Amino acid sequence: MTVEFPAFTHTILAAKKAKGISFADLETILGRDEVWIASLFYGQNSASPEEAQKIAEALGLGEEAIAALTSYPSKGLGPVVPTDPLIYRFYEIMQVYGYPMKEVIHEKFGDGIMSAIDFTLDIEKVEDPKGDRVKVTMNGKFLPYKKW
Amino acid sequence: MTVEFPAFTHTILAAKKAKGISFADLETILGRDEVWIASLFYGQNSASPEEAQKIAEALGLGEEAIAALTSYPSKGLGPVVPTDPLIYRFYEIMQVYGYPMKEVIHEKFGDGIMSAIDFTLDIEKVEDPKGDRVKVTMNGKFLPYKKW
Amino acid sequence: MTVEFPAFTHTILAAKKAKGISFADLETILGRDEVWIASLFYGQNSASPEEAQKIAEALGLGEEAIAALTSYPSKGLGPVVPTDPLIYRFYEIMQVYGYPMKEVIHEKFGDGIMSAIDFTLDIEKVEDPKGDRVKVTMNGKFLPYKKW
Amino acid sequence: MTVEFPAFTHTILAAKKAKGISFADLETILGRDEVWIASLFYGQNSASPEEAQKIAEALGLGEEAIAALTSYPSKGLGPVVPTDPLIYRFYEIMQVYGYPMKEVIHEKFGDGIMSAIDFTLDIEKVEDPKGDRVKVTMNGKFLPYKKW
Amino acid sequence: MTVEFPAFTHTILAAKKAKGISFADLETILGRDEVWIASLFYGQNSASPEEAQKIAEALGLGEEAIAALTSYPSKGLGPVVPTDPLIYRFYEIMQVYGYPMKEVIHEKFGDGIMSAIDFTLDIEKVEDPKGDRVKVTMNGKFLPYKKW
Amino acid sequence: MTVEFPAFTHTILAAKKAKGISFADLETILGRDEVWIASLFYGQNSASPEEAQKIAEALGLGEEAIAALTSYPSKGLGPVVPTDPLIYRFYEIMQVYGYPMKEVIHEKFGDGIMSAIDFTLDIEKVEDPKGDRVKVTMNGKFLPYKKW
Amino acid sequence: MTVEFPAFTHTILAAKKAKGISFADLETILGRDEVWIASLFYGQNSASPEEAQKIAEALGLGEEAIAALTSYPSKGLGPVVPTDPLIYRFYEIMQVYGYPMKEVIHEKFGDGIMSAIDFTLDIEKVEDPKGDRVKVTMNGKFLPYKKW
Amino acid sequence: MTVEFPAFTHTILAAKKAKGISFADLETILGRDEVWIASLFYGQNSASPEEAQKIAEALGLGEEAIAALTSYPSKGLGPVVPTDPLIYRFYEIMQVYGYPMKEVIHEKFGDGIMSAIDFTLDIEKVEDPKGDRVKVTMNGKFLPYKKW
Amino acid sequence: MTVEFPAFTHTILAAKKAKGISFADLETILGRDEVWIASLFYGQNSASPEEAQKIAEALGLGEEAIAALTSYPSKGLGPVVPTDPLIYRFYEIMQVYGYPMKEVIHEKFGDGIMSAIDFTLDIEKVEDPKGDRVKVTMNGKFLPYKKW
Amino acid sequence: MTVEFPAFTHTILAAKKAKGISFADLETILGRDEVWIASLFYGQNSASPEEAQKIAEALGLGEEAIAALTSYPSKGLGPVVPTDPLIYRFYEIMQVYGYPMKEVIHEKFGDGIMSAIDFTLDIEKVEDPKGDRVKVTMNGKFLPYKKW
Questions:
Q1: Per residue, what are the HEC states of chain D?
Q2: What is the CATH number of the domain that holds G109?
Q3: Residues of C (75-114) whose Cβ lies below 8 Å from E
Q4: Considering only CB atoms, which chain J residues are within 8 Å of G85?
Q5: Which domain holds residue H46?
Q6: Active site located where (chains A, B, C, D, E, F, G, H, I, J) (predicted)?
Q7: pLDDT of residue G124
Q8: Predicted-assembly ipTM surpassing the 0.90 threshold
Q9: What mean pLDDT do residues E87-97 have?
């Protein structure tokens, strides 16, 4: 299934590739995490005008890019069940470990959820002689259910 | 939507509640992470006979519990799109950050995926005066696509 | 489609009916809003032991009710698209006014969402000679997207 | 998932952005609520020719805009289950609080529904030192089931 | 697909069959249309206590029947797309004639809908030498979209 | 969800609007019901060459229109569950009154269905001081199940 | 996916098996086609009291069987897309040859459909040295679209 | 729902219409059944170069047509559940008569299926004073399940 | 999602476990492949009376087991998209390698399919110091599309 | 359903056809399996720059092809349930033999899965006088569930 991305996503990824700039480079330029920057490129977060300006300069893009990077479009990218194997594994983790996580979070915090908005996500490469490992760290504010 | 769990899940969670034992206690008893133990209770992982024995003893359960904890039933718990707000947030993270993670992982590792099998998941409570935070650490082996 | 509710829901609604107690009465007894109390009955929120005790007493229910009212089961009740006309109208409102609300909320607050957890919901009957009206007031904390 | 909007929606939102006019400004110009106006822009409601004329003038648009604003196209915008986090929260509210609202509305009014047609929706920003809040007020006529 | 009906539906239909009473007979006894009565039996409408009493008497049923007939359960019966050929034809009519009806209703009434709540539905047998015909008359209040 | 109509539908509806001709006018010109004519415009029925000719003349359209009006394209217009409120109400009627209608039709006619092919559909505006009403009359041949 | 059949289906198929009676035998006893009889057993058609009597006698069943065989339950058996390979092939034929059949039927008959109600279906075994063949003959009345 | 066909399908059907050639004519020209030829036009079967040549000549088409007619594209045309009434009736037949056919085929042949590949399908018009009938004959090789 | 298996499957798997007999043992006893035997246990294939007898004896089961093993129930086990990680990988292989396989099979064989009925499937453990490997060999008859 | 492939897929398949080069030829040129090469063409795997260069040369394609062949786009091609008969058979195998394979793999290897990433897939034509056979060999690393 060809997943449809915002038109802007193709433009900015092509510019990044042409410039030979990595997300890690952009992390240095912008002072923001590479995953957050990648989420900007997919229209899932929005930059301040200053941030958008810096990105546009780094990638040689103009006003249209700044407009796109500072807007708040409809979020959520993939098909209902992702078919891309890399992304599906995160769906599988939710299917397999979702209720176990619910049990442990409730035991530690009580009734409530982990925010996906007041939230950060970090990816690290952990070198390992038996095969490198991907370390994903999610950090979200616990929101207790309000009673009224 | 009432999600259907394996019949055993209800039994073992009730026994754990009746005994007043937390997953953290079980972590100490078993020497295994509390999330992994919770996943055992939901039929998503399988214990060795010795591990099953220790859990059964701690919770006052018999042979049937050991049989259930050491078997490999069909995995994957929830509805296609979860309705429980705590679990839905992990689905939303996959919808919103899935492709950005794919970009960053490919940039760091090349073509391949993070394994969800050679994989660990840890949950920590990070105290914070502005509101405690949930920290979820996923650690999976990177599997490069084999060429042939 | 017969929607499946937690077994406890049927018990507690039957007890409430038998006692002839309204949600408004329970609001007075408990000092909590009637919608929140109704959400408790459907397993969508959880009470403190003291709150559960008061409800159990009012309805003549025992320990099992207290256990159910203080637990945190899987949330989310209906089919993917509700078929009940009263509930469907709220789905329709989301379909018809969802993006318009997104525009107005973003204009007033910037990028972020209205929390459905740090959230209250109130229902009032507004008498009107041309036909009484239902007034639903939702009040949720605005959560700005965190940058990192 | 890139949600498809009527072609006109993109045109009118771009014109509004270019003119630097907010929905609040349009509320003043038109004497109609900003949410209703936003719903017009998404083709979910229809204006009178006079109303369409005023909007077209304010945004510097011509006959085509008037034609679009006064027509009655197919309504309902999003995917079956919304993926945009802001809009999803309204879906979650329906999933979690739908049946509780049904209980309370039936208790207050008897068998029937809240109209989504003879209906208004208002959004307010409630300032709060612990974090501003979004207040959504829905007001719909109660329609009792007719017997025949 | 075996469609699941409320348990009560089976009981009351069996009682009606055992008594050899038709919906037309019940129409005479109750002074209400047979389709409305059939909708009561499927939990889609609710009777007053007096009406419930009359039906229970006619069918030799007790208090439980009266309780069921006067309650307001979750409505909407079938699968998303009905498989029963008789019911599917009404789905097909909506698929084939839905937009044409929308055009004609908008032309006659302006923007709005036909209410399915302030609504009656009547079925008649029209004898015809070339084959009898089913005449279904729907009559619903037109609800214009409210502006605010 | 922007519903996709046959390209021709847009052309002919635009021509009709430009000419200021109503479906009621076309009913007079053609001697066929306005709903049937609207269904022609949506590619759900097919005209004879003479009928197509008359319509093309009335709307100032050429050979291409005649070809489209006389062809038999794939039928069925909307999404599986319609999101347009006007059309959804007909889906809701099928969900709520489908099985009750099945009961009454079977009681009156025996095992069989109402044809949606040997079928007519008429819409009338019934003026009423308490609010005008939409009257929809469906008339289909009863088809008994053939035994063999 | 275990497909759910009407409870009666299991009873009558078990009785048939116990008696060692084939559908071909029942065809002789009843003077009706074996496919029609099999469809009776699955609640997809209904027998006259005399026919039901004959079947009940042949299979040693009582009043309950007669009641089931003469009733008109909800029809349509399988999941939306069948998983049973034998039945899936008929779904595949509809997917692959549906539009080609539509072309040929329209060319031969004009606009309309083949009735699935005024319809018979016959299955024959055609012996063939290269492998026996299944011959399915469907015969349905052509129903032209009525104009009005 | 506008069903999407391969681009080639529109071209070849238009050419056939322009030439005034029927599928029956093509049957004579090609010495192949008209349904098979229609399936070619929808990209569901593939012709030999000689067959493609004959069709291209008959319809005045060139190399591109020959390339399309001899290729093996992705098969299966319609939506999951067809909305076109003519095609839906074949889906309904599978829903209603699928399991009855399975019973009869298993009784006649044992465990296995009717092939949809080693398969022919023929459509005949059977004239009848009470209304002409469509006769569809399917003939597929029986494939017994291989044991190993 | 708890996948529902035929009731018999649970019985026979429990008997096999209690007897401590492996599928490899059954392969020796029956002279049939272990995968085929496992498919029997899940109601996906059917045994001859002699084969059923041997299995029943080996597992200490009676007439009911023989009846189940020799019957032809509805086939196809899992949810539409499997959630079990082991089974999902085969779904993923079909998603990722399906069209590439189609290309290669068409190039080698022409238009047609690999039979899933005249078909065998074998699983081997290939020991490997870098990690043992699962080798799955599928062998199905090529069926060319019949022309007619 | 016309399955959408990456735009590049059409270009490269057309170039391959125009050059008259088979996947078997490319296997020789590249020293990689033909299925792997076909999967490259569908954007399901990625080549090294040297491999991409060789393919581009063989097919007379330029820089754009090299860029496409070395990128890692979103994977997973078909609709949720494939409609193409050749590909559907692999879906059917997963539906019918999925759980039996799970049983046998667990018995041979313990709890874990066959990798679809550290994985090869080979297709062979096995000539047979009773009809040639397709032999598909899958070979994936067994990944045991990690405990932590």
A1: CCCCCCHHHHHHHHHHHHHCCCHHHHHHHHCCCHHHHHHHHCCCCCCCHHHHHHHHHHHCCCHHHHHHHHCCCCCCCCCCCCCCHHHHHHHHHHHHHHHHHHHHHHHHHCCEEEEEEEEEEEEEEECCCCCCEEEEEEEEEEEECCCC
A2: 3.30.1160.10
A3: 81-88
A4: 92, 96
A5: 7-69
A6: 89, 92, 115
A7: 97
A8: yes
A9: 97
